[in-house]
UniProtKB/TrEMBL annotation:
Pfam families: BPD_transp_2. It comes from Halobiforma nitratireducens JCM 10879. The chain crosses the membrane at residues 21-46, 99-118, 125-146, 152-171, 183-203, 237-257, 292-312, 364-382. Its main location: membrane. It is a multi-pass membrane protein. Keywords: Cell membrane, Membrane, Transmembrane, Transmembrane helix. This is ABC transporter integral membrane protein. The lineage of its organism: Archaea, Methanobacteriati, Methanobacteriota, Stenosarchaea group, Halobacteria.
């Protein structure tokens, strides 16, 4: 049995891109089938006036309608008449896609370095507050209008990246210099981030004109603008923000694939012994990787403030935790993060469409979304496990001339 499992994992590890896509599509289809059965059976225990009568039992939910709303409702029902590419549902989908690209990249960078950053949520929260406070205070000395837009938005994004990166560097330093488990430290720092930001808000940055726990609103001209032919400003989405996220995604992919820093990061994650033998400073790389990961999470927080709410709110959505699933689903590939984030955006927007168009309870809708994520992500998850534990580098040192040690402990000539 063990040998068969190892062969299966080895097959997943060495699967081609087309094979992995085929596996993901098959998993998606399987999740839809399982979910459809679950919806249909659940409808038999619900109360409704009309439904499908079968053997004296009334089934209230139509699985076809549910999945129609889940996937096509997220796009604004493109098969129906009067469809516009700038509709509210599609804006919601792309809004979530944009934010999840940042958090997915944050987790992916850490994973590629062999680190598990479970603290992207905390880094996002800290970066978001830093953005809101920086923009509010900078707006007092920066002219308004177009100049304010050009100056304040980059300052806000930079503030989110810096403070998110600094907060990410903390578990990186603890890992590098104290050998602290980064999973534990990043999880705990999520709670620390919530406590620190809430305390700072009540102490200094609370909006005096509101009883809700929030900062003062940033000026309207400091929010990320939209293209003249894009989505309306009331939709809390900007095509410019999405374009920036896509460019950043491409930039991170280039950084990992084409630069010496990216090579050292990937090598230290896959073959730490070989990286150390090649002269890579493992401690510096751990701190640098977690700092970059935290900065990307902080940028996600900056865009949450600058694009969606225009202020920092105490109840920050779980975008950082969703980024973990986004990264795993993408196989920790920066270019795959975009497609993975788009799927999550569809599930988020489609879930809202199901709630308005059907009587299916939101708890069941959450189960359907969870099934899709679980089925599609599990092959990549097992692939990661197999790559980590089936291809472990040997404990013996590898000599520069290709020789090794024989049974007697002597080196080969």
């Amino acid at each position: 049995m063990r040998a068969r499992i190892e062969r299966l994992l080895d097959r997943l590890i060495h699967a081609s891109a087309m094979e992995r896509i085929a596996v993901s599509l098959a998993a998606l289809f399987a999740s839809i089938i399982v979910g459809a059965v679950l919806v249909f059976v659940s409808g038999g225990f619900a109360s409704c006036r009309t439904g499908l009568d079968l053997a004296g039992w009334t089934f209230c939910y139509n699985p076809i309608q549910v999945y129609y709303e889940l996937f096509l409702g997220a796009l604004g029902h493109p098969l129906e008449g009067g469809w516009s590419p700038t509709n509210f549902n599609l804006a919601t989908t792309l809004q979530q896609t944009t934010l999840l690209i940042f958090t997915g990249l944050s987790v992916a960078v850490a994973f590629r370095a062999g680190l598990f950053n479970i603290g992207t949520q905390g880094q996002l929260v800290v970066g978001a507050l830093a953005t809101a406070v920086t923009v509010v205070y900078a707006a007092a000395i920066v002219p308004g209008g177009f100049v304010g837009t050009v100056v304040l938005i980059p300052i806000g994004v930079l503030a989110g990246a810096v403070f998110g990166g600094l907060f990410g560097a903390i578990p990186g330093a603890l890992k590098a210099y104290a050998d602290a488990n980064e999973v534990i430290t990043t999880i705990m720092l999520n709670f620390v981030a919530v406590g620190i930001t809430s305390t700072l808000l009540s102490w200094r940055f609370q909006d005096p004109d509101s009883s809700n726990p929030q900062t003062e609103p940033i000026p309207e001209y400091a929010e990320i603008p939209n293209l003249p032919f894009g989505f309306g400003g009331t939709m809390d989405f900007s095509t410019l923000a999405l374009a920036f996220a896509v460019l950043l995604m491409i930039g991170i992919a280039w950084l990992l694939a084409r630069t010496s820093f990216g090579y050292e990061l990937r090598t230290s994650g896959v073959q730490p012994q070989a990286a150390a033998y090649g002269g890579v400073d493992d401690k510096r790389m751990v701190v640098s990787s977690m700092t970059l990961s935290g900065a990307l999470g902080g940028i996600g927080g900056a865009f949450w403030v600058l694009m969606v709410h225009g202020r920092w709110l105490e109840n920050v959505p779980d975008l950082g935790f969703d980024g973990i699933a986004v990264s795993i689903l993408a196989g920790n590939n920066p270019l795959g993060v975009g497609a993975s984030a788009f799927l999550f955006g569809i599930l988020e927007s489609g879930s809202q469409s199901i709630g308005t168009a059907t009587d299916v309870p939101p708890e069941l809708v959450g189960v359907l979304s969870g099934l899709i994520i679980l089925f599609v992500a599990m092959p990549e998850f097992f692939r990661m496990i197999g790559a980590r534990y089936l291809h472990v580098e040997p404990d013996e040192p590898v000599w520069a001339d290709g020789g090794g040690t024989d049974d007697g402990g002597e080196t080969d000539a």
